[in-house]
Task: structure prediction
Amino acid sequence: MFKKFIKIILLSLLIVLITLQTSIVFAEDESPLRLEVLTDKDDYQVDDEIIYHIELTNHSEFSANDIILRVELPKELELIQSDSEIKVNNELVWELESLDSLEQSTLTFTTKLKTDTSEVPIIKPELAESSDGGNGSVDTSETTPPKTGDETNILGYLVIFVLSVASFVIAYLIYRKKQVSKASIVGVLLIGILISPISSINATGKQFSFTETSNIKVGDAEYDLIFTVEATITEELTLAGDWEMDDDDLLNWKLSWTPTNESKSYDIYRSYTGEAADFERIAENILEDHYYAKDFEINGEAYYYVTISG
Result:
């Protein structure tokens, strides 16, 4: 009877471990930016100018940095006007420093069919493989930003911790009972060891890219434009907070975090409601691993998160 019970526990722990690992991989595969390509109409005559509006929106709860948008024009189209700073033959390039959570940037260019469609040299950009595995489809699943005092995903981490501790307790009971093989003890211990580190996973900055193709009809022919987006999504660091006197002997709420090898400076965001849309950047390029939060409202309630800025 005891052996059957142990086997059920082992199987349950393995299923939970596999589920947790799968969910983590899925979260890392999400793309935070959404690209929408708009034109003033669907069909054009051969002499018409085609006006493009590109809407690039950050649908994540994090900051997207070092954004590069590339547009490859087909050889049959020529560029008339663009707000792009870089133009190389049939390729347009926009470079954006950052897009905060829910922020949108609109880019424009105008093109038309060439009067002479003879062969011209084309520079093909190197298109990075889409991180979401599709043809430019973007997953915009929302998450809640971690903050001091927040309970975001705390239940998941609590479950992981309890399962990890339970694994070691079960292993100890097995050892005391001596009714099962040593292999079972080793199995339970391995599960406990594997589950434990999951609760401490904390990504900081992650590069991603994706491509989309937009089709336009001019006269009786159709042409494809290729759009490529590259960026780095900066996720929050885990915060700790405590009341402390600053250098001017004033009592403040001290936010602190653990630096990473990739981080050199940080941006601080605050909200008085805890809603994602209400967070605003209150400090940037902080070089220390702490920040003294001030300017509380009367009820003293505020929410914070920190991102790596450099």
